[in-house]
Amino acid sequence: MSFKASIVLTNEVRMLGVHIAYAIVADVKVEKNRVDVREYARHVVSRIVSQYNIDRLKEHPIIRAYRDFYWRLGIDPTKTRPSSEALIRRILRTKSIPLINNVVDAGNFASVETLIPIGLYDLDRIKGVLKLRLSREGEIFEPIGGSREVLRQGLPVLADDEKIIHLYPHRDSKHTMIRDTTRNVLVVSCGVPNVPATLVVEAAKKTIDYIVRFANGRPMGDIVYGK
User: Fold this and answer.
1) CA dihedral 154, 155, 159, 164 (to 10 degrees)
2) Could you tell me if residue 53 is inside a domain?
3) φ, ψ for residue 123 (rounded to 5)?
């Protein structure tokens, strides 16, 4: 494994103001039900519950930036929410955070702490060149935990040479999801207009730090920022 990955942003996506930060973490050990993850999850939930009010969450400038981006794409953000907002709302409603496995949980911790959507992908299941581009009419997307979707034209997507692995910035594909067998992870932090580049990079760094802490990962190189 070469531990190399690059993401090409097409001109059409750049014109939307999309920007990302990404990096690779190698040699992770995917586990469930770790005591330290459960303990930290309680800490995260406590912080989120004390920090946010569900009725006023949409007024936060970072949440507002993602909502405005969705409206611009013709997507109703009250029905299809950016992943970070959806997760925070779930925490505020249930006073808990879903625990999947230590790698996915690491990304969720960083996401709710920064309000930035985080994508995590099994690097060894990515084929060819990754592009952040606009969808083509009739392309297929197969999300984690959902039904096969036929996409309309003009949605920002992250795709390799064979498939779409992410609907930007809220859903990931089952084809590159983190599994028990995953060893090498691509971390992608998702920015939109009016979200500071420094916060997008910080979200990627937090995710990497948590993967190292909870999954014994090994960072490979620097965080790459692209816009």
Assistant:
1) -110
2) yes
3) -60, -35
Number of domains in the chain: 1
pLDDT tens-digit series, residues 144-196: 998 999 999 999 999 999 999 999 998 999 999 999 999 999 999 999 999 99
CATH number of the domain encompassing residue 210? 3.50.40.10
Parent domain of 102: 7-226
pLDDT tens-digit readout, 67-120: 999 999 999 999 999 999 999 999 999 999 999 999 999 999 999 999 999 999
Q: Measuring CA to CA, which residue among 203, 192, 154 is closest to residue 64?
A: 192
Length in residues, the chain: 227
Helix or strand (DSSP H, E) at 44: helix 35-51
Residue 2 maps to a domain = no
In this predicted model, what pLDDT tens digit does every residue of 6-59 receive, in sequence order?
999 999 999 999 999 999 999 999 999 999 999 999 999 999 999 999 999 999
Q: Give domain status of residue 138, yes or no.
A: yes
